[in-house]
Amino acid sequence: MAGNLKRRIMKKIVGIINMLCIAILLYSCAEESVGQTPVDNMPPQNVTGVQVQNTPGGALLTYTLPDDEDLLYVKATFILNNGQRSEVKSSVYTNILELQGFGDTNERLVTLVSVDRSQNESEPLEVKVQPLEAPIFGVQKELKLEAAFGGINVTYNNPTESNIVINIDVMNEKNEYVSLEKIYTKAKNGVRKIRGMAAEDTKLRYYVSDRWDNITDKQDITLTPMFEERVPAKSIEPMQSHSAPVDWGWTLNRLFDDNTTTGYQSKADGYWPAYFTFNVKQGPVKLSRIRIQQRKDYEYTHGNLKRFRLLGRNDYPLAGAQIDNESNPEEYLKWEPVGEFESIKPSNSSVTTNEDLEYARQGEDFDIDVNMPAYKYYRVEVLETWSGGLFMCFMEFQMWGRPEGFEFPK
């Protein structure tokens, strides 16, 4: 009897649970239908009062939205210079459409339609736009290519901060132009340095393009890079690091080992400005440029150098703990200024972009004034790091130039 009673009770419990599940399911289905817009075949009204503001390579359209409850978005359709049809959509929560990608200043038609939640489209409305000159043409007009040590410098201004590509081609031995460098940037301005070129007359061709296949006219120029050679790492002898004692076993010699995975780090409690000294064993060298390799995965942070100065001399420097203008002015004044430099972030943004990372990871070059004399001993004074901390940490310090008394190849 007791067993039968238990079975009957269990059946009732299971039945109640099943009924509750069905009720919950029905309620959920009912809830899902609440607020859904019914499908219909009635198209919405189109926008009205369209105002056109022509912009570089595009236009801004403002308008009044129709009073349709199920309006979803407004769509603009137009043809780009490459013949492709382009669409831009703007949600019901705004009354602005931004058009981009035009490669000339010709007047053209843009078709506007309103679209509702049933994907019905309104009657089309055509408006005329006449874009201003596309950003690439302004960049091309001010683009400057100049001969530099070991290559060329490319200086650009991009006031609209548009995504552009600066294309540099070089003529090869078959008298054909081939790609030398493509500079992808949206920075407002900058200087890119192309190295590894021979000191000979070099025919170059340059132009600017964008992601819509618009390109400027191609310009030809002949430049002759100035001769330089790398100062071999084995010719650089680190000396006492003075105010910058070693931390974490990252010794000074690791700055001069051609290995970007190892570097030098000073103690955070070291004297500031921190500095270190090194000797060029082969004799005085007239420098053309130096290169700093930041610590990977810590770009623009940590102890990477932001501001520093380079000093030089030819008599043996006094070793000591604090050799500066206050503690030992006579010794300090024996150092001659070579240059003061500042590391840059191309985007100039608080957020590090892919362009910033690429720039840092290829090594940042700093050009030396061509009028600077040759020195045997050099000293780096670190004035500021990217983190603002009182220590430095970076991976490589490389130098290019030519020995004292060097004669250029004929």
UniProtKB/TrEMBL annotation:
<feature type="domain" description="DUF5000">
    <location>
        <begin position="261"/>
        <end position="401"/>
    </location>
</feature>
<protein>
    <submittedName>
        <fullName>DUF4959 domain-containing protein</fullName>
    </submittedName>
</protein>
<dbReference type="Pfam" id="PF16391">
    <property type="entry name" value="DUF5000"/>
</dbReference>
<dbReference type="Pfam" id="PF17166">
    <property type="entry name" value="DUF5126"/>
</dbReference>
<feature type="domain" description="DUF5126">
    <location>
        <begin position="133"/>
        <end position="233"/>
    </location>
</feature>
<dbReference type="InterPro" id="IPR032527">
    <property type="entry name" value="DUF4959"/>
</dbReference>
<dbReference type="Pfam" id="PF16323">
    <property type="entry name" value="DUF4959"/>
</dbReference>
<dbReference type="InterPro" id="IPR032164">
    <property type="entry name" value="DUF5000"/>
</dbReference>
<feature type="domain" description="DUF4959">
    <location>
        <begin position="28"/>
        <end position="131"/>
    </location>
</feature>
<dbReference type="InterPro" id="IPR008979">
    <property type="entry name" value="Galactose-bd-like_sf"/>
</dbReference>
<dbReference type="InterPro" id="IPR033431">
    <property type="entry name" value="DUF5126"/>
</dbReference>
